[in-house]
Structure formats: C-alpha cells, structure tokens
Amino acid sequence: xxxxxxxxxxxxxxxxxxxxxxxxxxxxxxxxxxxxxxxxxxxxxxxxxxxxxxxxxxxxxxxxxxxxxxxxxxxxxxxxxxxxxxxxx
Length: 89
Known about the structure:
The protein is of the alpha+beta class. Helices cover 37% and strands 13% of the residues. It contains 2 helices and 3 strands, in the order αβββα. The protein has helices spanning 5-15, 44-65; strands spanning 18-21, 27-30, 38-41. The longest helix has 22 residues, at 44-65. The termini are close together. The mean pLDDT is 89.
C-alpha cells in the first residue's frame, strides 16, 4: 500500500489544531506541536484554510533548511527518503 506521508502529516497536525474566537469576532488558530504555526481569519473557515497553508509552508521551509520537524504519531519527516523501485509497488 502506497502511503502519502506528507499528506498524512498535514492532516494529523491539523487534527491537533486549536482555535479561538477573538474579541473582534475574528478567529485565530495554532498547532501547539508545530511551534510558530499560527493563523488568523475573519471566519473559522478562513482561519482553517490559512492555518493549512501556513503549516504546509512551515513544513516545506523546515525541510529545505534542514530544521527538525516534530514527529507526529508515526509520521517522521526527518528520515531520509527511501528510493524504492516503481516495480516493487
């Protein structure tokens, strides 16, 4: 079975998101296990979308710069990718 580790990581991280309604009626969201991943939106949906985008950028920049990415569940993005032959899939 082919696993999509980046998609799984993003979905698992988003399942841990915490949202707050602010005094002005807008929303904030963060993912506590991913330091610095925070977003804001006029609606909860906008905040969720912005948080997903922020998380995706945070992961990609972190990988590009070699920063350690928190392991979530069994999703470890810090491992070297395996280069399996397409014939074995």
